[in-house]
Amino acid sequence: MSDKNRTKGKGTTSNEKGEVVESIVAMMHQQPDVEVRRDVYLPAKNDNSRKRQIDVLLLGQFAGYSTTFAVECKNYKRNINVQDIGGFRDLLDDIGLPPHQGILVSASKIGPNAVTRARELGMKVYELAGLTQDSLSEALHDASQIVAFAVPAMSQLSIVSAAPEATSPHELFTRYDASGEVKGTVHDLLWLRWLEGEPPSVAGEHPLRLEIPEGWYTLVDGRRLQVLSATAKVTVRIVVVKFTGTSSTLALVEPRDQTVQRFHVTASFETFGKYPVLVFDEEAHLETFIEERHAALKVTVGRVRTPRIQINHIYWPPSKRVVRRVLQYRKFYVKGRIAMPTPEDFAGLESTDLKAFWEPIDDGQPALKLLQSRRAN
Question: Lesser CB count within 10 Å: N end or C end of the chain?
Fold first, then answer.
């Protein structure tokens, strides 16, 4: 018999406590091939005028057969005893269901004699774990979620070519075809390697050898010079953003051996506002940080590879916003208002927010055409 209509005196009613277990049991059995109904009244097999209440009714395909399971939900302060098993067995018999189609779920312990009797009848019994001490709601615990981003930065670049030592960096890095059209830069090639998965998302410094496409040349004083080789070193840092929240874990447990038969985990994280980031240059330090988190539920998302690579103080290929600022610097230089800009002049040009890595790339960048060409092939 359901305990929904009994009362405990003042305060919370047994009806309210019973509904907590019912709602959880119904939620834990929600799946595409199962129909879940709550508070169903079924007629007695020998008297249609007499209705019996079923807390949760499960209708679906089990092992290839259409089957009905009746679930009795208990939320007593005391342990479940043999009389409770007998009462549920009588309810099942009254509506024409055998004991093996009955499931009793209790928020309190199920006594050993009750477990033995249920086993004799073929009835399934489970203890519901994960409620608060008063069994009125799900118990909440601290939860921790971290999102790890792999952020690459060029730390060294070496180019071997026939160009004179006095060749400017712009001439040295930019590549042209036989007709004099700009095809791209060495930085573009480094960016493409990152998009293709090299180096891996592992903290530390990684050497790379860059393959110069056939037909790419350096132009110095109008002369077309062959590029012999290009190598680079890329430092990958793992940038971690940590969110805190709460979690709950509910489980249906076998009372005999405490094995979990079904469980449900929920978590909620506060993701509004600004969050500090942690930067790791070594894998060992990152692993220590992950292991030492203090939370009942630990979620790690990653590693997310940023879509661009840091070259000096700029994310490459540059965004529309950065290109506008660089052109402004160039304009001021031509007018004599500032000295020739150096890489250090662009420090602080990029936002400290990780979202800056996802800003739209400037449409005029040869890197975009190069990327499209590679994807087409």
Answer: C
